[in-house]
Amino acid sequence: MQKSTIPFLLINCVLAIVLISCGSVTKNYSPKKLDKTSYKAPYFSNPKTDYVYKTNITVYGNEMSGIFIAKKINDTVHRIVFTTEFGNKLLDFEISEKSFKVNSIVSELDRKILINTLREDFRLLLKKEYLIQEQFEKESDNIYKSADGKRDNYLFLSKKDQKLEKVIHASQTKEKITLLFSSENNIFAEKIQIIHQNIKLKIELNYFKSE
């Protein structure tokens, strides 16, 4: 598999969208009476913390690596910076539920479809507040449905320890994006995966432990 620290392959690869079909997210789960009407996601919430992750992006068989940094700069806005492993800045965004600002981006990545894809990914990753409309369950998880514009988010919380383990962003008939979280304490996610179902794009974040 080809590897690169220069993410310019992302441009043309993201343009090649391949649609797939799948059924409703909850078709195999049992409805359940609501036990909450809202939920606050625990991750990326501490304004005193710089969330730094080694990042690996796989897109259409090509891999690239870098450093992802997220910081909460006020009650609603996070700043996102992505660099090469050598510290060269590739992009710098400020993002909230209702706003999005590009502080800087290298010209090779300055493509509308790429920026829109990353904006959707990062907004979902950093989303804090969820209003719950429906609840479902399976053997090990409670699943909460929350409206998100014309789509829905499905939050998977483990019954054992109430950890947020997964978020699925979906239309009525198709899963679009899946976020997977590995967390020891349900405060900080040590590993995160962002997986697209309609394009061959996967982003993996691993907590960067400084020596």
Automatic annotation (TrEMBL):
The chain crosses the membrane at residues 6-26. Keywords: Membrane, Transmembrane, Transmembrane helix. This is DUF4292 domain-containing protein. It comes from Flavobacterium circumlabens. The lineage of its organism: Bacteria, Pseudomonadati, Bacteroidota, Flavobacteriia, Flavobacteriales.
